[in-house]
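Dear colleague,

Thank you for sharing your sequence with our group. We've completed the structure prediction you requested, and as agreed, I am returning the results in plain text so they can be pasted directly into your records. Please verify that the sequence below matches your submission; if there's any discrepancy, let me know and we will rerun it promptly.
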Amino acid sequence: MKDRLLVGLILMAVVAVAFALQVFFLLPILVCAVGLWEWWPLSKHPACAPWMRVGVPLGFLILPTASVLGLGDAGGLVLVILVALTDTVAYLAGRRYGRHKLAPTISPGKTWEGFASGVLLASAAVALSLSFFQGPPLFSFPELILLALLSQMGDLMESKLKRHLGIKDTGTWLRGHGGIMDRVDGFILAAPAAWLMSV
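Please find the predicted structure tokens below.
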């Protein structure tokens, strides 16, 4: 748990520095490149169907990356914060208060208590933060709720993929987090949805 939180804090610091230096756009590209490199050996797994070899990198990495880039730096940063907060709060609340399993056959550690806490508290925190800035908010509170929900669903989709392949993690790059794809699964559905909301 300590490793997971420490790596999460370091990653958020990297995001903040990249945003401050106006090179935020490089992060999604880098993550996508590493994710594709990580997927290459997994695509040769015997359980990987032919359509998955193209469909997974396209749907799990390339489309979310293009969507984050399409949001611009400000919109992308808000989405990154929302997804990270949703995941972190769900994890902490689930460990502390979780009693009812959300999807035991897909992701045994996830609970309804963690799911609800992550969606509601992260959305409220981001909405409150956005209210301090001048101008219209990038996303309304209902939109933030929907994006947080989609973030959790993306997490379950990636967990389902891992169960199908019979693996625990997609890689070993991030200590306590599994692979890169484990870390960015919240963007699979949330990023395209956020882009559609912004156009």
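Summary note from our side: The longest strand covers residues 107-111.

Kind regards,
the structure core
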